[in-house]
Amino acid sequence: MRHSRRAFLQGGLALAGFSLLTGCEMSGQPASEVPRVGFLAVGSRDGRAFMIEGFLKGLREHGYVEGQNIVIEYRFSADRDDRLPALAGELVALKVRLILASGTPASFAAKQATSTIPIVMGGLVADPVETGLVASLAHPGGNITGMSLMTAPLGGKRLELLKRTVPDLTRVAVFWNPPNPAYGPILKELEAAAPTLGVKLQRLEVRVPGDFEGAFEAAIRQRAGALVAPGDPLVANRPRMVADLALKYRLPTIMDNKEFAEAGGLLSLGPDLVDSYRRAATHVDKILKGANPADLPMEQPAKLDLVVNLKTARTLGLTIPPSVLAQATQVIQ
Prior knowledge:
The protein contains 13 helices and twelve strands. It has 333 residues and is an alpha/beta fold. The protein folds into two domains: 30-149 and 273-302, Rossmann fold (3-Layer(aba) Sandwich), CATH 3.40.50.2300; 152-272 and 305-332, Rossmann fold (3-Layer(aba) Sandwich). It has a seven-stranded mixed β-sheet with strand order 7-6-8-9-10-11-12, with helices on both faces. The protein has a five-stranded parallel β-sheet with strand order 2-1-3-4-5. α2 (49-61) links the parallel β1 and β2. α2 crosses α11, α3 crosses α4 and α5 crosses α6. The longest helix has 25 residues, at 2-26. The protein is elongated, with a radius of gyration of 24 Å. The protein starts with a helix and ends with a strand.
């Protein structure tokens, strides 16, 4: 009887242990390991907050809850991108399972820091192939994959929207942050489209937030009729600051991300950054379960948002043409 009871208990414990191990295997993690991932970003926690929330939402959709079954090590450049290589080195030294790179400069810093730890890009503005980050979108070929925003080809469309909205537009100012490699393709597209639309471009160099107001003043001095602010993290982290300055100087402005128009900017055209970071979590999940980033295709935006702020248009004395309103995915009254 004792023998039978002991055998029964041993069998029950073994079955319980098997069930626990099976459950851990199904979740893609060893029983003793909580994955630690790095989040390397340009700017500040506050500036990237909406992107971080998108990423955390995506992780939750795959069963990961920060602080419970996944640990995230955050590193922010605090507007000093020269710190990014050292911050990437810190994450490598922590032996994180992978690095989520937020912003083009962060992606380059992560690539330079490691060729073995997987890197997932949350939403890359620069062309990943043209800049040498990956071999191709379908087969990245190294330790990097993720989300490509591919916003440079939209440069002509953004100029066209401004041309339709601002009567007699002939000169358009463009923010330019030289250290960011994303700007090469962006400016190339804008410069190719400008002559066909009958406008001239005026570059305004901005390297730190303190440069913004001087750039607006320069645009007004040089009689620019509108402004394009590309999706550089320097700008994308501060949509309200740019929107407020655009209203102060009464300069019709278009940006990539909808948060700008929601903060009071006139127009925005581009992919949904929150959704991009949410979808990046799928790459993270696959890599944590053993996938090779070299074999995970880069993904592109599922849709584009054109947001029009009619309240701002009225403040600026502009009438948004029906042809523009018809294309809008969101109209702010």
